[in-house]
Amino acid sequence: MGRETPRTRSALTALDEARFGPGRTLNLRAVLPTPAQATARAESWLRQKQVERAGDVLVITGRGNQSVAGVSVVRQAVLSLLRTLRRRGVVGAVREHTAGSFVVTLAPLSSLRSAPSRRKDPTPAPTTDPRMLSGLSRETRKLLRSVALCSLESLGVRAPEAFVEREMLEHLSHLGATIRDGPMREERLRQALLVVLEELEHR
């Protein structure tokens, strides 16, 4: 592979802009975050893009030319995060795009529920209190119930009604890490539930 020149870098940047656009590009290099800031921002952004079914996205970390020993600590932190999010069902695949960027393929939103748990990979505590359901609007509970029933049926459960409340709580727990807090949180939860329902119905 030939040496990368400023002209080739400019051409690659133009191709990336055409392929991904600003809506599917996270440029961490532009804001020079700490590793902790970079991973927090990247996780929040990737989870939101998963809800939006963005498919392939571009995460730019920079190559670390100005870092100690030429190793980007932000790049290493983001790479570690991507591996974790792959285990958690957020990321489907990762490939190095350039020395300072990754193309990330986002997993279906329904993968959050089926991702295996690992002891060394801490995840949010599951929502097990049925009272959490009563705090939701009737519309949201109805949609959550539909998702739970569809999920149980896809697993071949013969009497889904006996397990529907537990399944509702499981889906609520897994989506809770993805939906940001705020005044429109329940509306965003319904949007995510609609995505999961559609994915389950088309399996």
In short:
The chain contains eight helices and four strands; from the N terminus they run αβαβαββααααα.
- Total domains, how many? 2
Strand runs, count: 4
CATH architecture of the largest domain: 2-Layer Sandwich
CATH class of the largest domain: Alpha Beta
Helix content: 40-55%
Query: What is the overall pLDDT average?
Result: 86
The number of helices is: 8
**Main beta-sheet annotation:** 4 strands, mixed
CA gyration radius, whole angstroms? 19 Å
One letter per element, helices H and strands E, the order comes to HEHEHEEHHHHH
Which short descriptors sum up this protein?
single chain; 203 residues; alpha+beta; Ribosomal Protein S8, Chain: A, domain 1; 4-stranded mixed beta sheet
Explain the layout of strands and helices.
Layout: H1 6-20, E1 25-27, H2 35-51, E2 56-60, H3 73-87, E3 91-98, E4 101-106, H4 111-114, H5 131-134, H6 138-154, H7 164-176, H8 185-201
Parallel strand pairs: 1-2
Antiparallel strand pairs: 2-4, 3-4
Helix pairs in contact: 2-3, 6-7, 6-8
Architecture overview:
There is one protein chain. This protein has 8 helices and 4 strands, in the order H-E-H-E-H-E-E-H-H-H-H-H. It has 203 residues and is an alpha+beta fold. The protein folds into 2 domains: 6-107, Ribosomal Protein S8, Chain: A, domain 1; 113-201, no CATH class. Strands 1-2-4-3 form a 4-stranded mixed sheet, with helices on both faces. Strand 3 and strand 4 form a beta hairpin. Helix 2 packs parallel to helix 3, helix 6 packs across helix 7 (164-176) and helix 6 runs parallel beside helix 8. It starts with 5 loop residues before the first helix and ends with a helix. The relative contact order is 0.11. The mean pLDDT is 86.
